[in-house]
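Many introductory courses stop at the sequence. We go one step further.
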Amino acid sequence: MRLIALLLLLMPIAASAQSVPKLVPDVSQRQIDIQSGFTGAELLLFGAIIYPRGVAPEGQIDVAVVLRGPTSPITLREKQKIAGIWINADSSDFRSVPAYYAIASSRPLDQIVDDKTAAIYELGLDKLQLSPSGEVDAKEQRRFSSGLVDLQRRGGLFREEAGSVEITDQVLYRARLNIPSSVPVGTYVAETLLIRDGRVIVADDKVEVRVRKTGFEQLITILARDYSLFYGTMAVLVSLLLGWFAGYIFQRF
């Protein structure tokens, strides 16, 4: 009897698990190479939604795609003009800030999820959890967080593109995200979220994209990081040589 009762309890759970759709995400390229003259790239994120028994459920289906870059601590400084001179005034430290954050959605975010769900999954620039360091006044925290987001957005490193995800027959989806030329190197994670009637039902399908420098840029990066003394010495020598050569040319002509 206990076994039968246990099976009866597990049956709704199993049926619910079988009714959850599955995402099959992918990206147009798993690696972006930064070379001389790199002006940016366009990344295509696409995939398919597999429904149990091949039948799409009733209700509104939405897709949000998030591309997030490597995180690092950041110190944000506020400049003030005092006596005609711009100086650093207040500052705030953040423990974990993504180097790049872009979200594309099939509809405006406020139409597909509520504020609580958006905060849980960090959907939207105003829902990013930037983790300030130390004890910070709540009002000052919001001011610096808004300033950091605005600064990154104007630099093209934070993006929010509502309505840019195309869904075909509630099965296929695709979105295009622009990668600016100033994008930092590192491992990026593309996450796809399937949303139905305002509820996130799938949010664990991730694809990694690697951004790296190649060619001469990679050589300079390696020298500056691993052979800093040699790199600094060579930089000084090259500067002296160029200065001498410029002086020689001006004397001749």
